[in-house]
Design goal:
Largest sheet: 5 strands, mixed
Number of strands: 9
Helix content: 25-40%
Number of helices: 7
Distance between the termini: 29 Å
Strand order of the largest sheet: 5-6-7-8-9
Shape: globular
Number of domains: 2
CATH class of the largest domain: Alpha Beta
């Protein structure tokens, strides 16, 4: 987990924001209402499953226990946010710990269903979100651990990764995709973020003094691993999100 206060000015959208992603208070309140309906037997189980996955809440095999996945776009956290993540683990995770995933999320296991809303509010107050961390959505956007400080990078990709994450969050076209989509940003051809194993990948480039990205598509692992193929060798930074959306 990198990019604390040093680079916060680059990726927090405005001075009144506390994080990369927009926090929607009514959305959390609605989640609380839906949990109560489900527990009262007034909400269809399959419908509730789809709903809670979009909120970053996974059911576990243990009855009424959930795994909560917090998105950390490009691994960027402030010191205050790290404190809140620790407090959330102490208060809501029975094992008093969280897990940092390979895709720069933080997960809490065995959280009682009735306590999930309180956890979401706690991290939301710190500018952190679980929205679309699960399900067939645009998942957490990752970047190289050294993004913003690497001597090899062409430029710092974190502001662009943040813009990408904000654009696709709650986007109407990404709420019920056929499958999930995973994205990575690398600051140079060294590709420390391993974009070639992602559905969508951006590699920083400069041509004729302009910042831009090489865009690759179609990478993946699992049971049918494949390397991503180049969609565009160079797209200016002001156009790369449009190309990704069209693809």
């Amino acid at each position: 987990v990198t990019n604390g206060r040093l680079h916060a000015k680059n990726w927090i959208p405005n001075p009144s924001s506390t994080g990369v992603l927009k926090i929607d208070g009514p959305e959390v309140a609605n989640f609380e209402d839906q949990v109560k309906l489900f527990q009262a037997g007034e909400k269809d189980e399959v419908e509730f499953l789809r709903f809670r996955l979009r909120q970053g809440v996974y059911g576990q095999r243990q009855p009424d226990r959930q795994m909560i996945r917090v998105k950390i776009p490009f691994g960027g956290l402030t010191a205050d946010q790290m404190d809140v993540l620790g407090e959330a683990a102490d208060k809501y995770a029975p094992l008093k710990k969280g897990h940092i995933t390979t895709r720069e999320n933080v997960q809490y296991h065995h959280v009682p269903l009735e306590e999930t809303t309180d956890l979401l509010r706690m991290i939301g107050d710190a500018g952190l979100s679980t929205r679309e961390a699960c399900g067939n959505t645009v998942r957490n956007v990752v970047a190289a651990p050294s993004a913003g400080v690497s001597k090899d990078e062409v430029f710092d990709v974190t502001p662009y990764a943040a813009a990408y994450a904000r654009y696709f969050l709650r986007h109407p076209t990404t709420q019920n995709m056929p499958r999930k989509s995973k994205t990575a940003f690398s600051g140079s051809e060294k590709d420390e973020a391993m974009v070639l194993m992602h559905d969508v990948g951006m590699v920083a480039r400069i041509e004729n003094g302009r910042r831009g990205f090489k865009i690759v598509l179609g990478g993946g692992l699992s049971t049918s691993p494949m390397m991503a193929q180049t969609l565009r060798d160079f797209v200016p930074v002001e156009d790369f999100i449009k190309h990704c959306e069209a693809a």
